[in-house]
What we know:
Number of helices: 4
Order of helices and strands: HHEEHH
Number of strands: 2
Strand content: under 5%
Oligomer: single chain
Amino acid sequence: TAPEQATGNVEQIVRQAASKYGIDPNYAVQIAMCESTMNPNAVNYNYAEIPGHHPSGVYQHLSNYWPARAAKYGYAGASVFNAEANANVTMAMWRDGQKGLWEC
């Protein structure tokens, strides 16, 4: 399958999402680099807390949690591999006090 978008745009997407939700863009980029090296197509197949569900996308959302998170923050039906959706959902979650779900 083709990537959702070129990774060169990901830093810009992350910075825009962070600014939109009042998050420090530099911090948002730092965590995205740690989670996925800012690769929107990243999947961590070594993580097996829930069999068959892997951390995916820029911010490594577990695939079983992604659909509800995306729907809650206005991205219903969006792929976890869509960098814009992944970054915006993550920044909205951080704004809402869930930054602790990311440990980098």
